[in-house]
């Protein structure tokens, strides 16, 4: 099962139309179909006054780094960028040489949906996808991969980094113990550790642990922390815990076109998102709506859910008849590649900070109404 | 003289402080120290409602492409990105192979101030800077460079593209005839033509000609059109006139992390900027303020201005005593590398869409007050 | 099973020592442990007289291209280089863009044993290894991979090339029908086709068909044809059947440091190897010796052979006791990663143009003597 | 004046023809038109016996490293490759990051005649050519370049390495004091130092100093030492004095396709070349022949020699009439780009280890015979 082989989302996903009728938000295609969260929009407006030094020399950027260090209870360097692909790829380029390889789950976004961005930024490193099944790298598979790597010489790419996705692409969440086990193995083998935290807030909301516990205290060297999927306009940040890895990151960002001249408008989004626990609240809402959706689907005859719903993504196999009913009612979602032997079609439904109970219930009602 | 060897700007460039005292905008360091222009900010706010398809499948993006085609009076493909460095480098990568070379002026931003981004995106092409003196490539130098290229074989990088900057890094502006002469020579030699239009609005305001005339009708294949320096938050766009060059541009953008998931917020900035001639009005204001500044400086004893002020950048050599007075009064500007043999220090003063006559006059008064 | 996880070869593989005792060639580690074949060495000596134009402007290079066209019964461009890794990677770079992907068998040399060279030369393309099991890509797996690729957009690398290895890394050989089936599917999907022919001579010797039949008539666009493993000092050549792909290959070679200044000494090796059917004779000898070895091993109690021996590589699972006996007797071979659940150790034994019946028999006698 | 703008060499440069008539070697186009030197050819033949471990695990490679350490009187790591372009580019990639810049003379081979190979291997670093005039970087220009670099931030490529060419592309030779001055400045600024020693033997023959004195004792971190131009078939080596720079060089070489499987045949060329002072004798012969040629040309009316002849390259401006006479007599040479304002045509004449006094005299006689 590989989530990057997707057809176009069903349903009316345009800004006007479907969503406005009866005020039901019908777009479950992704968490990035949402608008900017009001608190962040307000902060953007407030920051747009007076002149400010460009390229990160502004006070918002400085404040952001301080705030992140507080929240993560450690010293760290922070580099804001506007997309998750850039964030992941820049991070990997600081962890893996051009002749290196990155171990990741075969479902990882970096492996499937970034059009070779990690390969571009690392100048040709290989991504080695481990087929763990539910998005969480299995210690056994990792052990075997590391043993193989240890036996290889200069004819093979040098396995240099481990990348974990939290929450995973299948909506599952690593427990801290699992994470520490695999990052420990990786670090013992000399690898650097990256975490793709495009949906870290959803994992945090599920685990109810501290940001520190699930990142650097669990062996993460560089975190890609995403805000766009939970309310920002376009804002992600590398949080670099291994400070030596931050060296030359500004040149890496600059030559990739990823330093905004008016960087205050990137930093202020992240500041507002982290402020007053907005990020965690947004994560919690999305998770609750996904849980509500999953509970409803479990009651739906013919629905099969291959994974536990631990964050804000719900995967479900449904008969085509039901999918057509959803489409007819204007609901948006992605059809995934359905594994061989499965009866029905696997789809992904994603909730966001702005999904409401009535949106979820409306979807469930459409399904329930099909005879 | 090379503008990328700059010291930190003088003056208080923070968002609070200097600028608020007496409501005088003292920051002349760059046109990217400005906030977002109110019209664009309003459009951003208005677009933040309802769900929208991600990655460019939104109605704003579609409308933007139509609007650009109208304004430029031709069919074109439009690709919005958030920085000028990304815009230039992606454009060059579609014009020049990894074993190629790009001819540009030695002062070009792509050559000096993008930390090797064109080399990164083209996978190693060379930039060959021609020393024309005032930022406008001289036909004679270009002729010689093309003759040399024609005589070379596979031991030399293949000269594949010409990149012109309009307005130039020295604030000068190519006349249409000059532009057509050099792009004609380039096209005859099989080169593609790129225009770095980070300040095209200032050139348009100066020339008072149509956007078409100074771009594709003057031989430009891909235009990097910048809005950030004249009012946007972070928005530039490639305007691809040679449609074959647009092929695979989405994959180029994606693997560079330069497709926003919520792209509507990139496109809407550009739509608002192009709408109602806001872009031209903003360009005109900046030019007028630069002209006012230049006129004042010409009356200043001891001031030497090496270039005509044709856009929104003013270069002037001033005695250190005067610079210290400006700094003491809180004015921000960049010290450039002063050419050998020049008495005094070369500085750059940049005006923006939000510069006012009283800001300029306050600066001139400080100079006039020095005995 | 993955052949790039290899330990150091057992046995005395130095030039002196083991091999000389009783004149038995004990080194079965690879076909590249052999010296230069006498006919090729003689040709090298003969070419070393008088001055010759450098960088390929010599008469040997010209003659080589003509000879290759004759042998392959078609027009082709020929580019000699000194290593197989360079040959494969340059070929792939002409078939796959930086944002592309190459489909290959998961056992492929390009995927495992070239330290990311294809990624380097293509500037970051992905290699997607299909797990066919015996080194020959299965039409079913290829079909599924092509369907997946067809459903993907610009978030995924563009599947652009198919690379087949003939003979494969497991010593098996594609039949022409099999080859035509999978290259046909690839070409229908718009992919270019590469053949890694590091051991093409062994496949030719096994199939007893014409070089044309198993290459361009079977859908191959660029062939990497290797001579080093069957007698040359260091000489391989790209044979480019799709002439448009040859454009700029000289610049690709030059910027990779793969044009010899004294190229006559590269071309003359290949000329001598192709002349008088030396290549086919060398291939046949190696195959016959491998077949003799395989026949002997099949009679050996406890030996399991996972693949048919169709070229010059023999894979066999043997109990450790037997391997220790071989090592004690000075025989060189590689231990492969043994698949889970297999009793014993998988090793690879390779024969060359210079392997003799007595060398093979000596090895078999050592095994037979173990009680 | 830039030597990479060359037309095809005049004269009959094929292996047969011109050279055989009257046994006069007429090809002065380059030092790589020569055959393999007999001593090296003999060593190649001798090494072609028995099996040997591949990829550098052979005894010749081990012996070579020991021999180089003896000759250079220090510990060093040695990496043989088959071309000078590969040797230079691999060395630079270990000295300069992708976002870095290399300072070199504007005439440098790496800058003009390697088709962007340094850019390829470094993944996009810039080469900044200093216009010193005679190929030797002037301390003044270097000082200015380093000061500029020190003033720059992350918007500019990081100046990371200095590359010197010894002997230079104009046939001049750095004196040890000059070399120490500029490498000292570079090292003080944190740069690594590379020497392109494609013709180091000619510099050594001219200076009559020890190899250590003109390399690591003069501040060189990595030397590209070329044997091909003075007798080898295709053999160069990186001599890495800064041992930390050698780390991962094997992976760099492997992924560039620059590790021969039968590496013994690369190492043995270099061993024979260094053995018994063959390299120095070959260098001396070429220098003496160039000096003889230069003396003759100085007596030739109308000849202007822009540079001192200090190695084996002679640059001379001659009237077209004389060049036509040389061409008519079958002599081979390159026409260089003639500087503006010069009357006549600048050509390059190169002598080799196999040039004889009668070859030189024959050329001079042709000139003398023109009325």
UniProtKB/TrEMBL annotation, chains A, B, C, D:
Protein's recorded name: L-threonine aldolase
Cofactor: pyridoxal 5'-phosphate
Lyase in keyword set: yes
Family matches, as InterPro entries: ArAA_b-elim_lyase/Thr_aldolase, Low_specificity_L-TA_bact, PyrdxlP-dep_Trfase, PyrdxlP-dep_Trfase_major, PyrdxlP-dep_Trfase_small
Amino acid composition bias (Polar residues), ranges on this chain: 1-17
Catalytic activity: L-allo-threonine = acetaldehyde + glycine; L-threonine = acetaldehyde + glycine
Species per Swiss-Prot/TrEMBL record: Acetobacter musti
Quaternary structure and partners: Homotetramer.
Biological function: Catalyzes the cleavage of L-allo-threonine and L-threonine to glycine and acetaldehyde.
Recorded family membership: Belongs to the threonine aldolase family.
Limits of the Aromatic amino acid beta-eliminating lyase/threonine aldolase domain: 28-316
EC number(s) on file: 4.1.2.48
Keywords, comma-separated and alphabetical: Lyase, Pyridoxal phosphate
SUPFAM superfamilies, per the entry: PLP-dependent transferases (SSF53383)
Region (Disordered): 1-20
Domain of life (superkingdom): Bacteria
